[in-house]
Amino acid sequence: MASETELQKVIxxxxxxxxxxxxxxxxxxxxxxxEAKNLLVNELPGxxxxxxxxxxxxxxxxxxxxxxDNKITFVEFTELVMKLSxxxxxxxxx
Length: 94
Ligand SMILES: [Ca+2]
Ligand SMILES: [Ca+2]
Description:
mainly alpha
């Protein structure tokens, strides 16, 4: 098999990161709220300014959970990744 391109590696990396956190409770298909918090705090440091502030954590995770079922799907997670990519594209940081 040919070696993966940069974009293929990025896609694989997104799946790897999602699954690493999603599998903690035995269901690797979705992130629970706690799993989502761990992913955000570890992989996107600075997105939640104060991880010990439960109100702030709740706000960020609520934002992520678009259909409000208390589970974060891979689609919901990648929407955040897309938004962060747009910010970086237009404003050069995040
Ligand atoms: Ca899970
Ligand atoms: Ca959801």
